[in-house]
Design brief:
Largest sheet of chain A: none
CATH architecture of chain B: Orthogonal Bundle
Order of helices and strands of chain B: HHEEHHHHHHHHHHHH
Helix content of chain A: over 70%
Structural class of chain B: mainly alpha
Number of helices of chain B: 14
CATH superfamily of the largest domain in chain A: MetI-like
Distance between the termini of chain B: 12 Å
Number of strands of chain A: 0
Strand content of chain B: under 5%
CATH architecture of the largest domain in chain A: Orthogonal Bundle
CATH class of chain B: Mainly Alpha
Oligomer: heterodimer
CATH class of the largest domain in chain A: Mainly Alpha
Chain lengths: 277, 299
């Protein structure tokens, strides 16, 4: 019994405590922001953020006065649109990469990987000029296109790794049983990789939701995603930290919740390539 | 492959993969490669947005200007500092986190889920959160340091040219280390348990086990993750842009940020593109290294 106790104490000292410390480092900025957002405006600069006398005043103001609802909607349309475009193009491409061996396969796969490595700044300048000449600046389409530059290559790779994990023998069996290739795709492969499709879709959604520089450059007066809206709170209201932190909490919430929801599968898909490497 | 040798492959089957790929390939050609070529093309021109009629071909004048531009060299220096500190810091912290999360303890699942949160937050929120922490009047960091008597007066972390870059580096380390932790954790789970059992029977200490089994086992993951991270960290400008916008003065300019600010506020798209192209060339070595590693895995 003594030995057991000692090993538990040792574990707590060498594992639990260090983990707690790291979690403290990871979470405390976020918690500090949450605390600031519920502190009453008049008390913030005298007493500092505190849980006593918590108020939702900042959140009410965010939606009632600042009109955050509209920005949430814009972000939702852009992120949702990007997700549809990304998945719509990536799923067939990933199926081809996974199930066929053809000339140029390696080159094309590397091409998609290469795009992911391009500096955003190299794309953002010409894209702005391009959208301006097409008259697309300040439209949903412009932002969906810009976000797709990141979403398509990433989802092609991720979907390829998911489809690779579905045994080929399954769709071959379906085809011997009289299914056409497309029949096998829709009846066997797609249903089996639904979790993978969801994880990829969520990842695209989160990335597009969190994106800031494209939103700033290609958005404008009528389309203002949440990330830009949060940032503009600084200028308009002389850094009101209560309002700003409330905006941060609201803006981060959808992505964080979605992320926690799919994280296991998402991480499996993302780390697979690296672990093999 | 057997399908190539045996009965001739029908035409439809040979065309099918290309047909399925063509939408994704054509769209990326249109929205990625075309704009990229345009960026290179713009970098060879005099092109300032408030003089839209002027679009003169000037060969490499913009690049010569860059080489003679002190801000270009300052930005390049900051880019190097930025990468050389941030990536190793993220890696070491990530490695420590992964080793801990690989141990057995009751709330491991919860800890694993919570540690990745910074990764899912929007950069704007991260940036503003840390601006608030660093605030010189009401920031919690100064408050804590004052209470612990580590400093005697508040330090304006982001307004002081000597500390601003490092303050942002700390923020980016915070944002990026969970990525390393997750990657390394996956790598750790790939190392067979029997190696450790054998080493323990031979009387190897924990440290020797780490040095001779864990580290070699992680080499591949560490290499891939580091390359990926170098590219991402070098590219990421949103956190800097929101936190300081490059200031005070030029003290937090990195090369891509300089290119972006030049085009955005200076409206000089010719010079901005030239800076962006130069930065891409600087980064190209790492990109090629990464692609070669990734290319080996394509079956």
């Amino acid at each position: 019994m003594m030995v057991r106790n000692r090993s538990v104490v040792r574990r707590i000292l060498t594992v639990d405590l260090p983990v707690l410390l790291i979690l403290c480092f990871t979470l405390s900025p976020y918690l500090w922001m949450a605390l600031t957002s519920i502190t009453e405006k008049s008390r913030l600069f005298t007493d500092g953020p505190s849980i006593a006398g918590a108020t939702l005043e900042n959140y009410v103001r965010l939606f009632a006065t600042v009109g955050f609802g509209r920005n949430l909607f814009d972000s939702f349309v852009v992120a949702g649109g990007t997700m549809l475009v990304g998945l719509g193009l990536a799923v067939p491409a990933a199926y081809a990469f996974s199930r066929f061996r053809f000339r140029g396969r390696r080159l094309l796969m590397l091409q998609f990987l290469l795009i992911n490595m391009f500096p955003l700044v190299l794309l953002i300048l010409p894209l702005f000029i391009l959208m301006r000449s097409l008259g697309l600046v300040d439209t949903y389409l412009a932002l969906i296109i810009a976000n797709s530059t990141v979403a398509i290559p990433f989802s092609v790779w991720m979907m390829t790794s998911y489809i690779d994990n579905i045994p080929r023998s399954l769709d071959e069996a379906a085809m011997t049983d009289g299914c056409t290739r497309f029949g096998a795709l829709f009846r066997v492969v797609l249903p089996l990789c639904t979790p993978g499709i969801i994880a990829t879709g969520v990842y695209i959604f989160i990335t597009a939701w969190n994106e800031y520089l494209y939103a700033l450059t290609l958005g404008g007066r009528s389309i203002k995603p949440i990330t830009v809206a949060i940032q503009t709170l600084i200028g308009e209201y002389q850094i009101e930290w209560g309002l700003l932190t409330a905006g941060g909490i609201v803006g981060a919430m959808p992505a964080t919740l979605l992320f926690l929801f799919v994280q296991k599968r998402l991480i499996a898909g993302m780390t697979q390539g690296a672990v093999k490497g | 492959m057997s399908e190539l040798s045996a009965p001739p492959v029908p035409l439809s089957r040979r065309v099918l993969p290309y047909a399925m790929l063509s939408p994704a390939v054509l769209v990326t050609l249109a929205i990625v490669f075309l704009p990229m070529i345009q960026a290179v093309w713009m970098s060879l021109h005099d092109y300032v947005l408030f003089r839209p009629r002027v679009f003169d071909f000037v060969w490499f004048k913009n690049f010569q200007t860059a080489l003679a531009d002190p801000v270009f060299w300052i930005s390049l220096r900051h880019t190097v500092i930025w990468i050389v500190i941030t990536v190793p810091a993220q890696m070491l912290l990530g490695l420590a986190t992964a080793l801990l999360l690989n141990q057995d303890f009751p709330w491991r699942g919860l800890a694993r889920a919570l540690v990745i949160i910074p990764w899912a937050l929007p950069s704007v929120v991260i940036a503003l959160m840390w601006v608030w922490i660093y605030d010189s009047n009401y920031g919690v960091l100064n408050d804590l340091l004052l209470r612990m008597n580590l400093i005697t007066a508040s330090i304006p972390w982001l307004a002081n040219p000597d500390t601003a870059l490092y303050a942002i580096i700390l923020t980016l380390t915070w944002q990026g280390f969970p990525f390393f932790a997750v990657m390394i954790l996956a790598g750790l789970q790939g190392i067979p348990k029997s190696y450790y059992e054998a080493a323990a029977i031979d009387g190897a200490s924990n440290f020797r086990q780490f040095w001779h089994i864990t580290l070699p086992g992680l080499a591949g993951v560490l290499m891939t993750a580091t390359l990926l991270r170098i590219i991402w960290v070098a590219n990421s400008i949103d956190v800097i842009f929101v936190m300081t916008g490059g200031g005070p003065g030029y003290s937090t300019y990195t090369l891509p940020l300089y290119a972006f600010v030049n085009a955005r506020t200076g409206l000089d798209y010719g010079y901005g593109s030239a800076l962006a192209v130069s930065f891409t060339l600087v980064l190209l070595g790492f990109v090629i290294l990464y692609l070669r590693r990734a290319g080996r895995n394509i079956g």
